[in-house]
Amino acid sequence: MLGLNLDLASVVSLIFQLQNHAARLKHWILMGFALLILGLALHFTHAIPLNKQLYTFSYVCVTSGAAALVFSSIYALVDIWGWKCMFQPLAWIGMNAMLVYVMAAEGIFAGFINGWYYNDPHNTLIYWIQKHIFIGVWHSQRVGILLYVIFAEILFWGMVAGIFHRLEIYWKL
């Protein structure tokens, strides 16, 4: 039986032990749901509340479980159904992960776009996109900002990384 120690060697050995796609997906999805349910149960029973700042056990379980489910979904779409083209920007981001991390952490995208504003420095294109396209449609600030990050920031950095990939420019240590 596999333990919860998931270092790179464990993941690689798991891939070789579980020979077919169905066995891998079953294992990953079951572990993902188990971790997600455990984390949510700990939170809603007030045993260990979700707290990102403290990295509580419930927070780690919820985020690990959600990551396992997202990973399983992407694995099924890319490796089983062959939808590689749809996820190519993520591959480019992975090829230039250092560049994307440093530039995104410094807020280069937002700083570049926020350089232009109308009448008031707070009246920027980023603010307008967030308010009218994402927050206004979903009527929720949290959901709107999440969708903005997914559809604006990640797509922008995917295009930048794709251009760097085409030019064969890679940041490495």
UniProtKB/TrEMBL annotation:
Entry's transmembrane regions: 28-48, 54-78, 90-113, 145-164
Keywords: Membrane, Transmembrane, Transmembrane helix
Organism domain of life: Eukaryota
Protein name in UniProt: HEPARAN-ALPHA-GLUCOSAMINIDE N-ACETYLTRANSFERASE-LIKE PROTEIN (DUF1624)
